[in-house]
Amino acid sequence: MKLPFAESYKIKMVETIRRSTRNEREKWMKEAYYNLFNLRSEYVFIDLLTDSGTGAMSDKQWSAMMLGDESYAGSSSYLILKDVIKNLFGFNDYLPTHQGRAAENVLFSALVKAGDIVPGNSHFDTTKGHIEFRNARTIDCTIDEAFDTTISHPFKGNLDLNKLEEVFKKYPIEKIPVIIVTITNNTSGGQPVSMENIKAVKAMAEKYGTKVFIDSARFAENAYFIKTREKGYEHKTIKEIVKELFSYADGMTMSSKKDAIVNMGGFIGFSDRKLYEKCSVFNIMFEGFVTYGGMSGRDINALAQGLDEGTEFEYLETRVKQVEYLGDKLNEYNIPILQPTGGHAIFVDAKKFFPHLPKEEYVAQTLGVELYLEGGIRGVEVGTLLADRDPDTRENRYPKLELLRLAIPRRVYTNNHMDYIAAALSNVYERRNDIKHGLKILTEAPIMRHFTVEMDRI
Ligand SMILES: Cc1ncc(COP(=O)(O)O)c(C=O)c1O
User: Fold this and answer.
1) DSSP 8-state code for residue 406
2) Fewer beta carbons below 10 Å: N end or C end of the chain?
């Protein structure tokens, strides 16, 4: 008999989670103003709000923490991570930050000014937020295939080189300080970018004279897809692929809470010493001295170990196959999900799930609320709420895709949990026509409203 696939780790420590009743969930959801971010975590049975900072650290990461050096300057922890970053990504200099958006804040303080244009592939919300906060604008150059959830393209995160070139033709180069390539492309479904594409983006950046930075939160999952989908890479190790991938970039911002499997942390990697020096000033102002930047020494140690483990094929195979397992179940139940399944999450196509609900009624958020009520499962809206208002007109922006993201934390849930999620979603799908109305906004913040918005049923 062929041996079935099995996880490449065993469990050493567990955490109790509690089921609740539908009545309890109705009450809690109302009290949370239909915003899943407002729920207490103890009210959630399976938490798929994010895969960010929610992973389970390994025994080796916990032991590395004991050796953390808490010196203010020049700690051994800083130097350990410096070596790992140099070996893995090829960058000589780095700045630690407390998380990914802090890395963006520091980098963009040095790089982006009012009136600038930053092209990329579906910039993540904090990236876009930091750019727009500086009165600069993003231009999304993601390939069109990414906006059709039914097309199965191996590298749906790719940038469309024609769209990118249009940006260079339209705007003066002094206004385009950087191209941001997000791997995997979270906003358009955790979809990977191919090596060929990133190489071409770098060539175009060199032709016009600008930089490429990689928003690297899920770089290892991206490398896994390159290994398993792109010709010529099947025999390379993940670490070799990562090294080549980052050789096409001038630097990286990293939210270490994802593929480095730590609960908090981030950094910026640089090939340009001058830019590193410029950013150091902002790092000291916003984060902390250049050798700790908002992180404790023990957390830096766990991060260095996590980067090594997170780029091992066996771990990545276990990880991506679990997401695929859930995707296969949902396909079996005919639930409309973004194809193919991405690296870290399932994205449910809420417009196809509830075709009868108007876009003004926050369709994906409505689905998120219904899934919580059904099974105590918490996902997150990646749709109109997240897209925010247009900074100039203050009108709602209606994105091409209206998705409910079910992000799978790393090394946390079993496939029994995946079966539970699939069954709960299937139950909501069966009663979809009974859900006649969506939600309306009561109050919202001027930027990144999805975190704090208060809503009510229509
Ligand atoms: C692609 C991407 N970039 C940046 C960030 C921001 O990172 P952090 O949450 O650590 O601030 C995230 C977080 O989810 C992300 O997914």
Assistant:
1) E
2) N
